[in-house]
Automatic annotation (TrEMBL):
This is Putative outer membrane starch-binding protein. It comes from the Bacteria. The lineage of its organism: Bacteria, Pseudomonadati, Bacteroidota, Sphingobacteriia, Sphingobacteriales. Belongs to the SusD family. It is found in: Cell outer membrane.
């Protein structure tokens, strides 16, 4: 996709403003006029090209080290640099004027840009000599613009619920510029899904892996967005949620459906099945003999097989620099250890026999240690003194989280990782802070990290961000069918087991509760939790399931990675020794207390928008 400096300036002018009123304004004439853009086919292509920037939203920016880290606003982890922007979310202090995840103005600017493109592209003159070239391309450009517009509506929908549908280019003199009302949730869902259906008939099934066109919107992406949208629409947050009964337009229009509709789950299941039936994607399977590596490689390679909608990323090592453990000696990994993973996520990983660690027959132990081998990202490496808590767990655990005495590319970092506190003020451990960092829980992120990147030497990672990947479609189908049926059937088990089989986890059902709707619901929710850890799914899942007041409210825990001097002295060992730090490390302690109230399930419409357009009614609790 080619860039164009002129159109870039034009679109930056569009998306940099944030108010609804400014969104409706004409582009400043001192930059470039709309006519100038669409009187030239190359400029028009630049406008189409820049619409793809809308895929890089707050959810994705974190992987570069910026933006709000969604996982750090859930029970997955804590950002050590969270004063801005995660802390307001975790303390409950965010509001209609302070919301780092607000995309209202940005999204509507992209929607306006798409509307302008769709209204103008057919009028753009094309040289006669280029008619054969552009004749098949213009319909694709339009279909992709419609997808990107629909995706912006989805992002608005999952944040705010009912939002205005504005799909015409409004002049500033149009009364609708300052009197727009919110469309109902059902209206928004219907629009998104209808657009996906329509453009799926136009778009190609896929583009060749690694080609210049890879990353463009495909039929699979359109149908996957439909499935994801319908899953949200069927979920408790949007399906008969009485908490939102009072949210109505001035004319009395009920914005959130108040009658539970079980058939919405079937619509979601059927939409997911339509993606699976394309047979255009396969679960990543680069190293089937090694389930840890088989999963891990999905997140540090381009992976063309599984990703349905990628966000194309340039070659970089920013993630490794920000998220890998730090430490001081010459064998340290040399990252900045930005995240502390919570015990809540660690405990969600089953044993490799498929049983939750709370099951008496799981074999899980909280005491004792073992010696053996762990995958260091490149090869199996001998390890010793590993807590039995980390023995025989779901392989995804080892690919996702660093823990005490874990290993990472031993040829570059020739010692185990040490998160227990020891040395002068803890300075001997890998949780020792570089400026602004400190591993507080005894766990760091491992997922996304490329073992070929040596932060003390060379190497850069080549990966794309999977906005939607095939595993999600399997789990959408499983969840939707389980909720639709009275009890899980073979189709539900098969869909979940397709995802589990990639990491050699036993197929369900295993325990008695797996045979019930409620028990399988918990299994599917946990499967999403571990499969999509640190992929920005958990933040939205706990909201649409209406469980965030349980999961994201109250105490979050970790290992005792920051013991008091009294604890270290009580061991009878040298309080600065590694042995003393390890002796007090393996106990669960509170790391942070979170606040989540009912109003936090949906985001507030920005107060600036309501000041401009009083017809916009505010969400519950704001």
């Amino acid at each position: 996709m080619k860039s164009n400096k002129l159109i870039y300036l034009f679109l930056i002018a569009c998306i940099s403003v944030v108010s609804c009123k400014k969104y409706l304004n004409v582009v400043p004439t001192e930059l470039v006029t709309q006519d100038a853009v669409f009187n030239n086919i190359q400029n028009a292509e630049g406008a189409w090209n820049h619409l793809y920037a809308s895929l890089n939203n707050n959810d994705i920016q974190y992987i570069y080290g910026g933006g709000t880290v969604l996982g750090a606003c859930t029970d997955e982890c804590k950002n050590h640099w969270e004063n801005v922007p995660e802390l307001p979310f975790n303390s409950g202090a965010w509001n209609a004027t302070n919301n780092s995840l607000d995309i209202w103005g940005r999204a509507y600017q992209y929607i306006r840009s798409a509307n302008i493109f769709l209204a103008s592209i057919d009028k753009t003159p094309i040289p006669a000599s280029r008619n054969d070239y552009y004749a098949p391309r213009i319909p694709l450009y339009k279909a992709e613009a419609r997808f990107l517009r629909a995706n912006q509506y989805f992002e608005l929908f999952r944040r705010y619920g009912a939002v205005p549908l504005i799909n015409a280019v409004l002049a500033t003199t149009d009364p609708a510029a300052t009197t727009t009302t919110r469309n109902t949730v059902d209206d928004v869902v219907k629009f998104i899904t209808a657009e996906c259906d329509a453009i799926a008939e136009i778009l190609p099934l896929n583009y060749a892996s690694g080609s210049a066109d890879y990353g463009r919107i495909t039929k699979g992406a359109a149908l996957a967005l439909k499935a994801r949208t319908l899953l949200y629409a069927a979920s408790p947050l949007f399906n008969g949620n009485a908490m939102y009964a009072g949210i109505k337009n001035a004319d009395g229009t009920q914005l959130f459906p108040q009658t539970y509709d079980n058939n919405k789950w079937l619509l979601a299941a059927n939409a997911a099945k339509a993606v699976l039936d394309l047979n255009a994607y396969s679960l990543s399977n680069p190293n089937p003999s090694n389930p840890v590596d088989n999963y891990a490689q999905l997140f540090f390679t381009r992976n063309y097989d599984e990703i349905i909608l990628p966000y194309i990323m340039g070659t970089n090592r920013d993630f490794e620099g920000n998220y890998m453990p730090n430490g001081r000696d010459g064998n340290a990994v040399n990252g900045n250890g930005k995240m502390s993973v919570f015990q809540e996520l660690v405990d969600s990983y089953e044993m490799n026999n498929g049983r939750p660690i709370t099951d008496p027959q799981s074999g899980y132990q909280t005491t004792g240690f073992w010696n053996g081998q762990l995958w260091d990202g490149v090869r199996y490496t001998p390890v010793s003194n590993i807590s039995n808590m980390y023995k025989n767990r779901d392989p995804r655990f080892y690919a996702t989280i660093f823990f005490q005495y874990d290993v990472w590319n031993y040829s570059n970092n020739a010692r185990p990782l040490k998160f227990a506190w020891f040395g002068n003020n803890g300075g001997g451990c890998d949780g020792w802070p570089k400026p602004g960092t400190n591993c507080e829980t005894g766990y760091n992120w491992r997922k996304w990290a490329d073992p070929n990147v040596n932060l003390k030497g060379g190497g850069s990672a080549n990966r794309n961000f999977p906005i939607i990947r095939l595993a999600e479609i399997y789990l959408i189908y499983a969840e939707a069918m389980n909720e639709y049926l009275g009890a899980p059937n073979t189709d539900v088990y098969n869909a979940v087991n397709a995802v589990r089989s990639r990491v050699s986890m036993p197929g369900l059902p295993i325990i008695a509760s797996d045979n019930t709707k409620e028990g399988m619901r918990q299994r599917i929710r946990n499967e999403r939790r571990v499969e999509f850890a640190f992929e920005n799914q958990r933040f939205w899942d706990v909201r649409r399931w209406l469980i965030a007041k349980t999961t994201d409210n109250g105490n979050m825990h970790g290992m005792n990675a920051r013991p008091t001097p009294a604890e270290l002295n009580a061991t009878g060992l040298d309080p600065n020794s590694e042995a003393a730090g390890v002796a007090v490390f393996y106990k669960t302690v509170v790391d942070q207390t979170r606040v989540f109230a009912d109003r936090h399930y949906l985001m507030p419409i920005p107060q600036t928008e309501i000041n401009i357009d009083p017809a916009l009614v505010q969400n519950y609790g704001w």
